[in-house]
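Collaborator request, handled under Task 6.
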Amino acid sequence: MAEPTSAPSSSCPICGKPTDPPFKPFCSKRCRDVDLNRWLSGVYAVPVKEEENEDEDPTPPTAPGSE
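C-alpha cells returned to the collaborator:
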C-alpha cells in the first residue's frame, strides 16, 4: 500500500507568502480582502463570447408587401 504524500506547500496568490489555514488560500485577512476588492471592483472578469446578433430583434424580417 502506498503511503500518502503530503500536500505541496502553497503560497498566497496575492503576496507569495505561505498560506495560513484560517485564510487559505491566502496568508492573511489583508490578502483575502485585497482579492475580494479586486473581484468587486471588476479587476477580475470571466471572459464571455458575445453573440453577433445579440442586440437585434430575434424575429425574422418579413418580406415587403407581405403584411
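The cover message to the collaborator said: "Helices lie at 29-40. Residues 11-42 form one domain. Please let us know whether this matches your experimental observations."
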